[in-house]
Target: SAC3/GANP/THP3 conserved domain-containing protein
Amino acid sequence: MGIVCLKKKKTTTPRDGAVGSWLVSSDEPGVPIPGAMRRSSSSSSSTRRTGRAAGRRDTGSALLAPPGAVGAEAEAEALPGVVGVVGTCPGMCPSNEFALRQRLRRLHRLELGPSPERLPDPERAVKEYSRPAAGKPPPRPDELRPPAVLLATAAHLLQLAGQDGEEDDDDDEEDDGGQEGVPTVSAADRGAFVADRLRALRLDLTLQRLSGPPAAAVLEHAVAALLHAGHRLSAEPPSRFDAQLHRAQLQETLGALRRAYRHGEGARLPRQPGFQALFLLYNLGSAEALWQILQLPKEIRNAPELRTAMAIHSAFLERNFARFFRLAGALPYLPSCALHPHLGSARRLALMIFSHGFSARNCRYPLPHLAQLLATDDLEEMAELCRAHGLAVTEGCVHFQKGAFKDAGPQAPRPSRLLVGRKRGKASLLELLEKMCH
Model:
């Protein structure tokens, strides 16, 4: 079978505010701005010019999110007298916030004790996200958590993120104490709780100007939790899981983590190669992401995790999908979660190439072989994907016709049991994170 090489077109950066303009930072690859979000392009253009004038210094996320959704940490840095406070809060949630939310009955189900009492539990409560604003008073030291408490909070949230088995998807399911006494909630509600508390965690880091190894350890837990949630909730409807907002938060967290790595240069950061690989896999196909990886020190670039990620990146760009899916099948769980958003695009491009390479009147391609090659969970998923792109499937075979193929665009995401889900096994997310030490 011949591989069809697609000539890479030279791209240019449109003027600010133009359709499809790009917002690029030093930590995340350029991402096209959706039409509904172009209203922020005028302010973002000044950010781009400032970042370039400062020699590609860090400017935050490459994604625009709705106002108040993501990236408010940057606003905290601009508030006078706020940044640089040393936190003294001994628990995951400040006592005054816990008392206020308890009085207003705003405690989450995951912050309550086990059934049947379900009493408010200060040991389970986690500080919720509150957007910084110029009109708010600066946070007191007892409202900010120091590095050790932030790390313990991140570990708690990562553990909660992993307790979202398939059996607890029903919102109306009665709580039975859950795993280790944790009330059972739907996976979507659990993911929303964890995401909100992770944003508060990052804000505490920013307000205290924490970076280097202490911040890196906290942010590694956050990235792992968000990657897991991105795959686990990928089939949820938009009303329960905002994929665009989730991607923005994950890109912001990856950017903050990579800045922490740079500020901790010279310190022992054993997980850095693995998380740099996660960054490249999550931004598969991005020339800027690859360029940033190539600027890393040689000892990090030559780590097995990064070499594998770069091989997958190259296979995707070369449209060598047999090698792409073979390498993807050998990835551990967290890297597979990072690659998961790109599986649909890879399969769509593979079908387009096959439609040209096997376009013949009497040519039939066995469906089981195609499902194995593109690593779908079952034959029905493969047949459904073919039909969505205008390809006929009869008697267990696919009929590739160049004229019949239609680009249906991105398909509705779905979790992948073969390439992602089964790789976790019985291990907790904390255990999987520990295995990433190089």
